[in-house]
Specification:
Blueprint lengths: L11 H4 L4 H11 L3 E7 L7 E10 L4 E4 L15 E8 L2 E13 L4 E6 L19 E6 L11 E13 L11 H7 L3 E6 L11 E4 L5 E10 L12 E7 L1 H9 L6
Antiparallel strand pairs: 1-2, 1-4, 2-3, 3-6, 4-5, 5-6, 7-8, 7-10, 8-9, 9-12, 10-11, 11-12
Length: 254
């Protein structure tokens, strides 16, 4: 009796579904669309102050971030402006921006920049499921180390309801309080974000399409220890709330 042995060659990529090279390609595609957000005041030292992260959408002139990143009042008498910072063609660049739309409930803001068109990210149209792989890129410790965005990767740990508190008590009104009694669904991640990541895009690791906006971290340690002992739960706001804001304000982004 003869036995025939069949040998099957199984590609390594099949055995290892987490394709690091694919994520690297995605990061290369996403990185030019990531910006640091802050304010710029010519008479201040330092002139630039970092507030958070943002990302480019639409026709390349719109920036998305968290509302709390750009909620502070500007010193208009001294010409303080909202500004975005990025490394373009190997050089640090600055562009002024204006806030044109905001959603306090879901902590989303849209800015429009002057004098530039930047590479834009696409918004994700598929279904986000628990266990899916996603990444987010931003400036976790600001511009301390220069304009070099950092990427973190993780899975969607849960899709759960949460009520995000207002940043300032003066933002509260009866309408907002009523909505906060009915918390909405957000994405919970198993990757740790830092305060500077506020406004970072949460994107599909394979396509780079944005599915959410990093919002906040519940921190167990004090702020002074967050860099040395990061601990907490990271949340992202689903992108459908951004799409709703765009529709309500009739912003024709393409």
């Amino acid at each position: 009796m003869r036995f025939i042995i069949y040998l099957f060659i199984i590609p390594f990529s099949f055995l290892n579904p987490t394709n690091a090279a694919s994520l690297a390609d995605t990061i290369d595609k996403v990185r030019p669309s990531i910006v640091a957000i802050g304010t710029y005041l010519p008479s201040r030292a330092p002139r630039a102050q970092f507030k958070g992260t943002g990302f480019v959408i639409g026709n390349g002139r719109y920036i998305v971030t968290n509302e709390h990143v750009v909620s502070d009042a500007l010193n208009e008498s001294r010409n303080e402006r909202i500004a975005i910072f990025l490394k373009k063609n190997g050089k640090d660049s600055l562009y002024y921006a204006d806030k044109i739309a905001s959603d306090i409930i879901h902590d989303i803001a849209i800015l429009k920049i002057e004098g530039a068109t930047l590479p834009a990210l696409k918004l994700y149209k598929g279904n986000v499921r628990e266990g899916d792989n996603y990444a987010f890129t931003g400036f976790p410790i600001g511009m301390v180390l220069g304009l070099y965005p950092v990427t973190h990767q993780g899975i969607i740990s849960a899709i759960s309801p949460v009520a995000i508190p207002m940043i300032k008590s003066k933002q509260l009104n009866s309408k907002i309080i009523k909505r906060l009694r009915n918390p909405y669904m957000v994405y919970q991640l198993d990757a740790t974000a830092y305060p500077g990541n506020s406004g970072s895009p949460l994107y599909n690791s394979q396509t780079g399409e944005v599915a959410g906006i990093i919002n906040k971290v519940f921190i167990k340690e004090s702020k002074e220890k967050i860099l040395s002992q990061p601990s907490g739960i990271t949340y992202a706001i689903p992108i459908n709330y951004l799409e709703k804001l765009i529709t309500e304000r009739k912003l024709f982004l393409p």
